[in-house]
Amino acid sequence: MSSPLLPAQLLIFSSVKDALRAIGIPDLPAQHELGKLEIVYQAIGKYLTYHRYQIKAKLANAIPKGKKSKNKVDIATLTRQIVGDKSLAITALHYRCVAFLRWASIEYKSAGDKWWEEIDSVLLGWRQEFQGDDVGLFDCFESMYTDDVQEYGDPAETGSIVKQSDVPTHQDTLDSFAAMVTPKPATGKNSRKKRTNVEVDSDSDEEPRVDERQVRPRLGFDEHIDGRGISPIGDEH
Question: Where is the composition biased (Basic and acidic residues) (predicted)?
Fold first, then answer.
């Protein structure tokens, strides 16, 4: 018998299943077909675990081994490496998210198997700190992106992006379901994360529940990326 799913796992797996149903993937089990749903959730879990490992490995390979290393991978190249052969329309938002992940891979390099939990903790803290302030949240990611460009090179020289308004409908739908998942903060510790002038304090011990998702528009600042002259690459980046 398989181990019971934790509430956070159930929320993620259920959101993936609902997203697949929304974009028209056929033959998914109905809500009452619990045995079949468990098989689907197990498959989703294996898929996500594999790709989390792959992302961490690609991030590690994109960090210079020494300060004088000339092997620097710009954010456009790194994003393409992470996306791989998937049919994903890469946007300015992806560059900023990958810049955040590269920063986190350095900041929390000693976290080991808890690395993704640290990522969740930081993101949850930021959302709590910037409730309703999409510009403030955007500026956190923009600061990391700017630092990344200065350190690793201008992505305009190696890549191109799609305007958020031109993202395919199915990808936009998947993004909207991903935005419904709110991570649970690490239990029993006060998570304080700093980035530039941002200080976050998250103490909530609430467990996410499938029927009470916190819905937000992706990370909440897509409109600022298109609205502040960052898209598309070629003229801006």
Answer: 210-227
Number of domains in the chain: 1
What is the tens place of the pLDDT at every residue in 105-125? Answer: 999 999 989 999 899 889 888
HSE-up (13 A, CA, CB side) for residue 195: 26
* Contact between residue 105 and residue 63 where contact means Cβ atoms under 8 Å apart: yes
Cβ atoms of residues 134 and 221 within 8 Å: yes
Q: What is the pTM of this model?
A: 0.73
Task: Report the share of the chain in percent with pLDDT over 90.
Answer: 34
| 83 in any annotated domain | yes
Domain presence at residue 232: no
What's the rounded Cα separation, in Å, for the pair 142 and 155? Answer: 14
Asked if the model's pLDDT at residue 40 lies above 80, the reply is yes
- Domain residue limits at 158: 7-227
Whether 52 maps to a domain, the answer reads yes
From 16, 49, 20, 14, select the one nearest 34 (Cα to Cα).
14
122-154 pLDDT, tens per residue? 988 888 888 888 888 889 999 999 999 999 999
Beta-bridged to residue 123, according to DSSP, are none
Question: Taking phi first (over 0 means left), then psi (-120 to 50 degrees means alpha), and beta for anything else, what does residue 34 get?
Answer: alpha
In whole angstroms, give the CA distance from residue 19 to residue 43: 15
